[in-house]
Amino acid sequence: MKRVGAFSIGIASILHLDKVLDAELVYLPPAMRKRVKCDAIAGWGMKPSAAAARQFAKKHDLPYIALEDGFLRSLGLGVHGHLEHSFIADSVGIYYDASRPSALEELILASSQLDAIALEQSRQAIQRLGQHRLSKYNAAPDYPVSRLQTGAAVLVVDQTYGDISVQLGQGSPETFVKMLETAVDNHPDAEILVKVHPDVLAGKKKGYLLECAQRMNCTLIAEDVNPWAFFDAVSDVYVVTSHMGFEALVAGKKVHCFGMPYYAGWGLTQDYQTCERRSQPRSLEQVFYAVYVQYCRYLNPYTGQPCQLEDTIELLALQKRHLEKYRGHWVALNIGASERKMLKRVLGFGATLEFRKRAQNLSDDSSPDSQVERGYILKNIASTDLKVNEVVLAASDNKTELTVQQGSLQLKGLGSGLLYPLSIEIHERMPGQVNVDSIYIDPESGNIIDVETATQLRKQCLPYFAGVSMWSRCKRLTRYLYLIL
Fold this sequence. Notes:
By secondary structure, this protein is an alpha/beta fold. The protein is 34% helix and 20% strand. Among the domains are: 135-282, Rossmann fold, CATH 3.40.50; 318-448, Rossmann fold, CATH 3.40.50. The chain has helices at 9-12, 17-21, 51-59, 103-110, 116-132, 164-168, 173-186, 198-201, 210-215, 227-233, 244-250, 284-295, 309-325, 337-347, 386-396, 451-465, 470-484, and strands at 3-6, 24-27, 40-44, 64-69, 86-90, 153-157, 191-195, 219-221, 236-239, 254-257, 270-271, 296-299, 306-307, 328-333, 351-356, 375-378, 400-406, 423-430, 433-441, 448-449. Strands 2-1-3-4-5-12-13 form a seven-stranded mixed beta sheet. Helix 5 (116-132) packs across helix 12, helix 5 (116-132) packs parallel to helix 13 (309-325) and helix 16 runs antiparallel to helix 17. The protein is globular. Residues 381-387, 411-419 and 464-485 have low confidence and may be disordered. It comes from Neptunomonas qingdaonensis.
């Protein structure tokens, strides 16, 4: 097995990165760099922080592997602790550097040789991305853009000032101004939506378009919204180098490129710059296959096992469905302190929980100023006071009531109190209907397990645990859950 050195302790500690690289990954502090023999050096893209790694690789005639997040990165942001589902490892260049070739560019050039099976795989994956409305990050709420007026609209995408992809993608501050002016000229009767980062509007970060967009009376959009919500509302998308431009192509939109992102120059976009290396047209299916199937590397972050694009799509779609199911503000009644952490994990980070000891003053929640968006959570059907139920139903109007209780699959015996419960049931009650949702949990980590996995578990747990002590069953069960995720 080859050995890859990393100058950054952060890179060396990325979970399962060794399996992505199919190599032994070693951290190289300054004192060890000349003593440890490596076959390649890895760094984070072309950022200045990786300059020492690039220089060392060049000096010692070693390949430099540029690492980046993949284009289906995770459910939420990495800074919030969400694990990577995909990576990029490019030993030729990097996809956002248009000044020289990259492994992605070579794959796109070679995509003319793809067979019918590969192209059909692309079409199926494109359809699934649209069906599940997946993007690089997938925690943003998916609802219509709030400030959009009726009529035609186009989207202009701003980027953070100094973005390395702008610098290496033939972009500049003047490029952004030209892009906005062109969008306004090309669509005189359309509403011009300018997507800016929320921190730019708050003055915490700097973008390229804020002042220009305000001067030209454009509609500024800073909400964290699923990109597909924008694609639903617009006909054209204007970008400099943003990856959102390729997602817009996947969504069937006309894309105008004012820089030279990886997807420009292949006949798919309206380009305002050129790249001599990209003179041969390619279809969307060909470029998609090169980008999502060949260039990105996928793994299940919970098992650490490499997987395929389709596996990652389904896993992210599952996570997103659970996130959306309980997104919103809930009032939780009579939930003990020891149970609150478990409830937060079960409902997901999209749910905001307000814990109350009593049901008093719930009638105030029906006012227009109330923060209760979704409804109320009670502890369990057997022990909930009937009067509390009546008060909740009277106050909730059309809001949802969730009643939480232990599920049918539970750990018992020595040590069971030290772990999460194996399952809980959530009874969802709205006027005229009652739904029961069984949620299964890894007892050690508290991670949610999907229904298919839980069904496997229930079918197989008896023979799997036959003749084993209860405490050993707990340990075996934890390992087994990780095995079948």
